[in-house]
Design brief:
With 229 residues, this protein is an alpha+beta fold. It is built from nine helices and four strands. Helix 4 runs antiparallel to helix 5. The longest helix is centred in the middle third of the chain and has 27 residues. 33% of the residues are buried.
């Protein structure tokens, strides 16, 4: 498929756009990325996603697909020539969807709250929330790694890997900003090893944003999130 038949409205800073790129790379599909600055939002974005007005948006010929998890599932169902991203078993698929929803709820909210917190005292409950989420994900991953698998998805990157891995650079950036580990080698050894393996995967490596660039971007994001709050 030609790149002009498949376009992604995304942004280098967006973990959600990153999810879509990883999925497309895993499938070996050619696509074009249209970088959105969101300042202001482009007419194409507002036209393509008039409900939420957010990235990512996948433009597949005359079709428009929104919301990162939904887009990844769409990619998996349309391009079946490559290994599946979601499990084949119905129960395992439901389980994968549950954990990605959990990540979007607990991990994302923790990162955002830590970022905008004004002092250590207000950061404390959000670090605790992140700690609880990391512990739960460590247990989920251990079930796979106990069988000799490198990823949540088994031998290859799957839905949970993409869901959590899309936050990897932001996690490291916030660790650097706060001076405190969110993924700790002692407490979360499986997750730390998984993060290293995930980051160097050919479908991922070139896509992960530089941590220092995210730290600079976070200064702008912090003001936006604080204003929204």
């Amino acid at each position: 498929m030609a790149k002009n038949d498949l376009k992604l409205l995304g942004g280098w800073f967006s973990p959600f756009a990153l999810r879509v790129q990883i999925a497309l790379n895993l499938k070996g599909v050619d696509y074009e990325v249209i970088e959105e600055t969101l300042n202001p939002k482009s007419e194409l974005l507002l036209k393509s996603n008039p409900v939420h007005k957010k990235i990512p948006v996948l433009l597949h010929q005359d079709k428009v697909i929104c919301e990162s998890a939904i887009i990844v599932e769409y990619i998996d169902e349309v391009w079946t020539h490559a290994p599946s991203i979601l499990p084949q078993n119905a129960y395992d698929r439901a389980n994968a969807r549950f954990w990605v929803a959990y990540i979007d709820d607990k991990w994302l909210s923790s990162l955002r709250s830590i970022l905008i917190a004004e002092d250590e005292e207000t950061k404390k409950p959000h670090f605790e929330e992140a700690e609880e989420a990391a512990e739960r994900l460590e247990e989920v991953l251990k079930k796979s790694s106990s069988e000799g698998k490198a990823f949540f998805g088994g031998d290859t990157i799957g839905f949970i890997d993409i869901g959590f891995g899309s936050f990897l650079s932001w996690t490291r950036a916030i660790e650097k900003i706060s001076g405190r580990k969110l993924l700790d080698e002692t407490k979360h050894p499986s997750l730390v090893q998984w993060a290293e393996t995930f980051a160097v995967h050919p479908a991922v490596n070139a896509l992960l944003p530089e941590i220092d660039n995210l730290i600079e971007y976070s200064k702008i994001l912090k003001l936006k999130l604080a204003a929204a709050k």
